[in-house]
Amino acid sequence: MDKAEGAAQAGQPAGTRWGAVLAIVGAGVVASLQVGKVIIAAPLLRRDLGLDLASIGTLTAVFSILGVLGGIAAGGVIARYGARRMLLWGLAATALGTAAGALAPGYGALLASRVVEGLGFLLITVAGPAALQRLVLPSSRDLAFALWSCYMPTGMAVAMLASQAFGDWHAYWWCAGAAVLVALACVAALAPANPGGAGLSWAGLRRDTADTLGAAGPLLLAASFTLYSLMFFALFTFLPVLLMDKLGLPLATAGLYTAAATAANIIGNLGAGVLLSRGWRRSTLIACASAAMGVVALLIFRSVLPAMPTFLLCVLFSAVGGLIPATLLGTAPLVAPRPALTASAVGLVMMGSNLGQVIGPVTVGGVIDRYGWAQAALIVAGAALGGVFVAWRLRRLNGARL
Q: Cα separation of 39 and 45, whole Å?
């Protein structure tokens, strides 16, 4: 028996299909583009639709709320109908929602379109890792998942940079939708079909949910992602404001600086794949990155250094923080209660990510308004300590070398 036959019998591909991997990563990038487009188009939405900041915040928060509520359920659906199929459906829903948003006559219709986009985003971000798991050899897993974890900072950075070319948000929406259709065509052409599981049933979903929530590994990964997202979005939600206050930058320039700092997160994501492939423990990367983010956040929020060094600290915060999501997403398949629950485990981890995105900006924004930037640093530092503790608990898990 040759290696290809052995791999096929073991449920593994004969070789890593890098074309399909890149197509799936591209799907994640265009999905996160839909998150970033609202953030950077906020001034245009306020001008044309007369929206206040609370309304714009709701347009952005829809994605995170759906992720918190439906992460595990999405994993169960994906496990039964197949990751590739649900990835394609997610892209189709995102394209439909984006087109509906571009045609929306008012806020209500735009919000409804964001719900459709959010459902597509949920399917894409949970189905993507599950699809990758079937396309890569174990020796390539960490690198493939490191590439996948770049989808959020890449999409956000592209959204901020692309916004410079648009003076009308409708045109921005149409172009973002076109990007989704390109990604859909690439996934359809390059990603092989994979079989689904048993038929969908409420009893099966309840059993899968109970098994996933009853396993320590996925819960710890979800907790770690919550703390990371809290720290990251606590800073980057308000980074343009910080840059305008500290550096005196105009809004457009602050957006470019924020895009550069966000893109630095890609360095950490890719670095995690390299370090893991060289034998670094996953818990060590999470603990070190969490501690570094906490220390750097104290320096940033407390304005210890002049303006430009403070911005460079933001870049460092983003780059070091990128070690965490790549490590967590690459670890999720290893700690799933059973292989069939990989998508559910990823869904739980993504629930943690979305929960942090909701908690971080709201909590830190309230503290900044009431007590100032310096006190907000304590929240981020506390989350960093929590991240170190969760990493210690991960190390104590039996089974995979964590």
A: 10
